[in-house]
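dumping this here before i forget
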Amino acid sequence: MTVNVPIDDIYDQLPPEPARVYETLGISFPLDVDVAFAAAVCTLSPSLAQEHLQTLSTAGLLEPAPTRPAAVLVRGRVYRVPDSVRAHARDHYARRTGAPAGEPLPDLRRRALDYYLHTSTAAEHTLTPTHCALEREYLHVPADPVDLAQEEAALAWLQAQRDNLLAAVRTADTAGLDAMVWQLAHALWPLLRATHDYPLWFETHERALGAARRCHNGAAETEILNTWGIGLRGYGRHTEAADIFDKVLHRAREARDERAIAQALHEIGATHADAGRPADAEPFLARARGIRLRLTRNSRTEAQQRTHRRSVAVTDVCRGPVLSALGRDAAAVRILTAARATLIEAGDRLDAMRALAALGRAHAAAGGLDAGEAAGRQAVEECDQAGWTRWQARSRDLLGLTLQDAGHYDEAGALFRAALSLYDPIDSHEADRVRRHLTTLSTIAPTTGGGDSIASSPDTT
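structure:
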C-alpha cells in the first residue's frame, strides 16, 4: 500500500477497466490470483489482464504473493488483495453492481467456479487419464485455458492452487451449487493421489458426498465414496474404509457394474493389506484381478483394453507385497515386473514408480538383495525426478528396509531419517511407521567394532 495515501484517493485515480478488475478480484473467493484467473472472471484477454494487474500492483492495491518456482512456471506472477483493502473493493463492487454488500453476483461467482473446475479437470485428464469419467457442467468455459498438457505443469498447478480449490468447494457448497461441489471434489483426485493431503481430502469429500446425494446422482455418490475410502485407508482408519468399500461393493452389485465391482474388491483387498492382514487381502485382490482380466479380454476397443490392462497391473502392484508377505516371493517378483512394464506402456508414471519400489522389496524378500537394492535406488531416482513428496519418502523407506536386510545400517538409517523428514509435514501416520523402523534398526545395528554402525551414521536429511 502506498504510504499515507488513502485508498479512496488511489482508487479514484484508476482508469475504469483496472478499477473494475480491482473490484472483481476483491469480491472473489480465491486467496490469490493470477493472469489466467483474472482473464477468465473479468472476460479479458490474457495481455489485458496482465496489464491491469500490473497497474493495480503498482498502485499498491495488489501485492505479490509468495510463490514456489514450479508454480511460477505455470501461473506466472501471483497477486493477492491485501485484507486492508479487500473491504474497500467489496464496497465499490456493491455500489457499481447493486449486489448485496460482501456478495458477488451469481454470474461472477459462477465464472470463478467454472474456471477452477475447467482447469482442474484439464489437470485430472493429464495426470489420471483413466480416472472414472463423470460429467462436467460449465456455464462459462475460459476463452484462454491454462496449458496443462504436461504432467509437471498439471501437478504444479494443482499444488499451487490447493487453497483456492478448497475455497472453491466451500463457496459452491455455501451457494447451494451441489453439482459444482462434487465435480470439483472429483477433479481433485490426482492432487489427493499424489500428496495424500488428508485435511483437503476429508473436507472436500464430506461436502461432495452430501452434494451428490442431494443431486440424486448415484454414479457420483459411488465415486466419491470410493475415493473417500481410499483416503481413510491411507490415514490408517481401516475399519471405516472397509465399511465404505462394502457399501460401494453393494451398490456396484446392485447396478451390475463389473468395473465398479472389481474396483471395490480391489479396495477391500488393499485395506486388508494396509492393515497387515495379507491372508485376508489375497482373495479379494485375486477376485478383482480376475474380473479385470475378463474385462480386458472382452474390451471392444483398444482404448478400453488399455484401460483394463492398466487396472490389472494396478491390482498386481498391490498384490505383489501381499504375496511376498505370504511367502510367495517368486510370484511377487514376476507379477510386479510385468505390472511395471504395463504401467510404463500405459504412461502411468506414479503407479510404475510404485511397482518399481515394491519390486525392490520383493527381490530382497526372495533373496536377491543386489537386485532389490538396484531396483530400490532406481525407484528413489524416479520419484525424485517426478517431485512427488509422498513417493520420495516412500521409496526411501522401502530402500532403507532392503539395505537394512543387507546389513548396510548406516545408509538404511540415513534413508529412514530422510523419509521421516519428508513425511513429517504431510502424513503423521506414515511418519510414525518410519519411526518404528528406526527403533527396530537401533536394536539390530552393531554399535561397536568395524563395519556399518547406525550409531555413527550421518543425517542426510
